[in-house]
Amino acid sequence: DAQLLADLVRVNYLPRVWLAPRDTRELRRLVRFRAQLVQRRTDTKLRIRGLLRENRQKCLVAQAWTKNWYAWLATADLSESDRWIINEHLEELVSLSGRIGAVEAKIKARLKDDPVAQILLAQPGVGMVTAATMRAEIGRFDRFNSGKQLSRFCGVTPRNASSGARQADAGLIKAGNSELRVVLVELAHRLISRIKGRWADLAHRMLIRGKPKNVTVAAIANRWVR
Question: In terms of Cα–Cα distance, which of 131, 174, 135, 136 is closest to 155?
């Protein structure tokens, strides 16, 4: 058995497995718990919007979730039971926002003395959530042989859909880490729309050539990681 394993290692037939240390696993649980809370908050907001839509109530004077919108919501024409449901949802939003703030404080404290996280935070457009997610889900960056491998692990590489002489892509690969894909696509949006520099210029050139916006955003995320 030892000789067989040695032969498999020699020809590189055994995949490498990286086991995250305890600190990384704990940070990963915190990051994923925050993502779950954020998803619950989003679902609650969607339920409120759905209830208003059923009652044909639409605010024309303010954007949703602003102070003026909340003031309008307090005067919206709703039945007693629907008003009670809305208030229950609003209380849940307040509770979830507080819990999200608490877990973000714990994440920030863990990143304070992490040198890799500080390097990530120094990159333009990278905030605490993006840095924490990358640090927790990737762990050690040197376990990848190339930026292409890392990009594929993050789920931001194009999926090949070629057939014969036809060469085509079909969106992003289905494999990869979904948590990383989300934060990296959000990062690409920030790099394109809010931060002037090489990534915004590259996106502008791609859009001029006729590339769709979603393809451009995915390409920026892919190249940034690589």
Answer: 174
pTM above 0.90, yes or no: no
What is the band of 180 on the pLDDT scale with cuts at 50, 70, 90? very high
Q: Give residue 198's Cα distance to chain centre.
A: 22
Average pLDDT over every residue of 179-200: 93
pLDDT band at 15 (very low <50, low <70, confident <90, very high): confident
Output the pLDDT for position 168: 57
CA distance 153 to 143: 11
Q: Which amino acid appears at position 102 of this protein? A: A
* 171 vs 173: CA distance, rounded Å: 7
